[in-house]
Amino acid sequence: GVNIGGRADMEIFYRHQDSGYVGFRDRWIGSTKAARNAISPLKQMSQLRVPTFHTYSKDEPGIRPEHAKRLQRALKKHGVPHEFFLEAADAENDVVHERYRRIEAFLAEHL
Q: Which of 22, 29, 67, 103 is the most interior residue, by most CB within 10 Å?
């Protein structure tokens, strides 16, 4: 699987959303902790069996750095094979091309 800057922890996402998105947020991810846990990638690690590739930017709007840190710890804890690529905050075209080169290499190896 490939994850490009995805939110990994729905609790972080829930707590740090702009108040203008509360109605959308509650409908999309749920207003209860149980609902958020049901869709949170971090809570699904024990079920994950395939290698995964994750790429995050150091300063991506709307994606807090904790998502990548918590995700990486959870993948290690559950023994899920994975790769991470952390991009510079001001990623230029060369960095973006490197991201896709790495994704292609990952997919070539694991498909």
A: 67
| Three-state secondary-structure class, residue 18 | coil
Alpha helices by DSSP H, listed for the chain, are 10-15, 22-29, 33-39, 65-77, 93-110
From residue 41, how far is each of 36, 78, 87 by CA, in Å?
A: 10, 13, 21
pTM: 0.78
Mean pLDDT of 59-81: 84
Instruction: Classify burial at 61, counting beta carbons within 10 Å of its beta carbon; exposed 0-12, middle 13-18, buried 19 or more.
Output: exposed
Smallest CA-to-CA distance from 8 within 58, 78, 55 is with 55
User: Looking at residue 52, what DSSP letter applies?
Assistant: E
